[in-house]
């Protein structure tokens, strides 16, 4: 009996998750919400130097040194 209750709880959870997920997606689709539009203007307006990460800045001397060696 206990296994049946667990199976029923899982089934109910799956159904609720599917319904709520579909409703959520439908609402976001209806209002034409695209999360990448929020940040795309910010990144396009910034200069390239502003978008560089610390890793890029740390590796730049290594790249500039080796590019001269292999550019023959």
From TrEMBL:
Entry superkingdom: Eukaryota
Keywords per UniProt: Membrane, Transmembrane, Transmembrane helix
Entry's transmembrane regions: 6-31
Database matches in InterPro entries: Ig-like_dom
Presence of the UniProt keyword Transmembrane in the record: yes
Domain Ig-like: 1-72
Listed name of the protein: Ig-like domain-containing protein
């Amino acid at each position: 009996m206990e296994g049946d209750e667990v199976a029923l709880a899982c089934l109910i959870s799956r159904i609720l998750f599917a319904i709520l997920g579909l409703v959520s997606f439908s609402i976001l689709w209806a209002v034409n919400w695209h999360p990448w539009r929020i940040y795309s203007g910010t990144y396009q307006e910034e200069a390239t130097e502003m978008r560089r990460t610390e890793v890029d800045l740390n590796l730049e001397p290594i790249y500039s040194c080796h590019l001269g060696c292999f550019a023959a």
